[in-house]
Write a structure and sequence with these properties.
- The protein starts with a strand and ends with a helix.
- The protein is globular.
- With 257 residues, it is an alpha/beta fold.
- Strands 3-4-2-5-1-6-7 form a 7-stranded mixed beta sheet.
- Helix content is 42%, strand content 14%.
- It has 12 helices and 7 strands.
- A hairpin with a 5-residue loop joins strand 3 and strand 4.
- The chain has a single domain, classed as Rossmann fold, CATH 3.40.50.
- The structure holds adenosine-5'-triphosphate and magnesium ion.
- Adenosine-5'-triphosphate (ATP) binds next to helix 1 and helix 10.
Length: 257
């Protein structure tokens, strides 16, 4: 049975997609069967994993038209299994009006949960119906936060949404942790950032990941080369940090955290 993890933060540009791609690639490198799903109409996750996006079927067809999940899973040249998104998804809020509209993703995924060890879901920078579908379908949330824009207010709002989802459609949902991204430990600010992140985590009863993802140009370059960070720049700081992060994710899940 797949463990399902959703990357979420309603703030934009904090590293959700970069982390979803790295987590997918890192788990595959550790011999796991992984399905990556893009719920963001911007469609960056497929691109980051090297998928050529054409007119093929996407997560939109699966959610809107009930196209079976097996028909919307694409395999990239590097062997990643991806359900891509497209811009049509931006109409979801208006178009998805059925009574069970929060459960669309979860119901579709039931068909493939036994085929994978992990399902990794990337979400848009908002708490909308797509994000809620991601929460309803998942076991764990991971919250990437960019070191320069830590937001306690945003996190409290996010946690209220998580509580509502737990109380209604998905009691299993748990926050696995907060991941600091774009971290630069040489700056004088780093100590302040760490302290503040620790305080944010404590106030929201969440754990910070030990791994912190340092800033590095390789993280931004890899997607443009259709390559994951571990293949593109294995010795780069982001690759080393993401490797530690992937181990930590497996450890936390393994220990029943
Ligand atoms: N560790 C890093 N070092 C340098 N650049 C990074 C790092 N992580 C992410 N970036 C860059 O920051 C930008 C935002 O990252 P990303 O797209 O992963 O964020 P996001 O949260 O998915 O954004 P959105 O909310 O728009 O979907 C991208 O250009 C990405 O390449
Ligand atoms: Mg993104």
């Amino acid at each position: 049975m797949a463990v399902t993890i959703v990357l979420t933060n309603q703030k934009g540009g904090v590293g959700k997609t970069t982390t979803a791609a790295a987590l997918t690639a890192g788990l595959v490198r550790r011999g796991k069967r992984v399905l990556a799903i893009d719920l963001d109409p911007q469609g960056n996750l497929g691109f980051s994993l090297g998928l050529d996006i054409d007119n093929s079927l996407t997560v939109y067809d699966m959610l809107r038209n009930r196209t079976p999940v097996n028909e919307v899973i694409h395999t990239t040249e590097d062997g990643y299994h991806v359900i891509p998104s497209n811009i049509l998804l931006s109409e979801a809020e208006i178009e998805f009006q059925s009574e069970n509209r929060v459960m669309l993703l979860r119901e579709s995924l039931d068909q493939v949960r036994n085929d994978y060890d992990f399902i990794i879901i990337d979400t848009p920078p908002s708490l909308n119906i797509l994000t809620l579908n991601g929460y309803a379908a998942s076991d764990y949330l991971i919250i990437p936060m960019a070191s320069e824009i830590l937001s306690l207010v945003g996190l409290i709002q996010l946690q209220e949404t998580v509580s509502e989802v737990k109380a209604s459609v998905n009691p299993r949902l748990q926050v696995l942790g907060i991941l600091l991204t774009k971290y630069n430990r040489r700056t004088r600010l780093a100590a302040d950032v760490l302290e503040m992140a620790g305080a944010v985590a404590e106030q929201t009863k969440t754990a910070l990941f030990e791994a912190k993802i340092r800033s590095g140009v390789a993280a931004a370059e890899a997607p443009a080369h259709g390559s994951d960070i571990f293949s593109y720049a294995p010795r780069s700081n982001p690759a080393k940090d993401y490797s530690m992060f992937v181990d930590e994710v497996m450890g936390r899940i393994g220990s029943g955290q």
